[in-house]
Amino acid sequence: MLVHIVMWKLKEHTEQGTRAENAAKMKEILEALPAVIPQVKRLHVGTDILESAPETHAILYSEFDNADDLKTYAGHPRHQDCVAFIKAVAEERRVVDYFLE
User: Which of 10, 70, 77, 93 is deepest in the core (most CB within 10 A)?
Assistant: First the structure.
């Protein structure tokens, strides 16, 4: 199993809305992906409710059978729509991919 984790620090305010509104929208659009991308085995999005330091406002946890399935997910048009929105509202992004044994 390949685990893909992405963490974002969001801009305080954008044309799309406030940080909280954008985090909620990210959660909504990302969590809709497994219904249209069968390679996604598990996907969960969390948003920061305790204002942790250092700041991370949203996190994606997802699982795939292998690296090819992750590449299929990454290139899928619906995922690319999510990427476009997130790029507009995110200030920083961190990613880690690892195999779960």
Answer: 10
pTM (whole model) above 0.90: yes
Structure-block tokens of residue 14: 């954008």
φ, ψ dihedrals at 14, nearest 5°: -135, 175
Q: Which of 78, 10, 90, 7 is nearest to 40 (CA)?
A: 78
List the structure tokens of 45: 């999005």
pLDDT at 53 exceeding the cut of 90: no
- For the chain, what is the mean pLDDT? 96
Q: What are phi and psi of 28, to 5 degrees?
A: -60, -50
DSSP string, the chain: -EEEEEEEEEPSEETTEEHHHHHHHHHHHHHTGGGT-TT--EEEEEE-SS--SS---EEEEEEESSHHHHHHHHHSHHHHHHHHHHHHHEEEEEEEEEE--
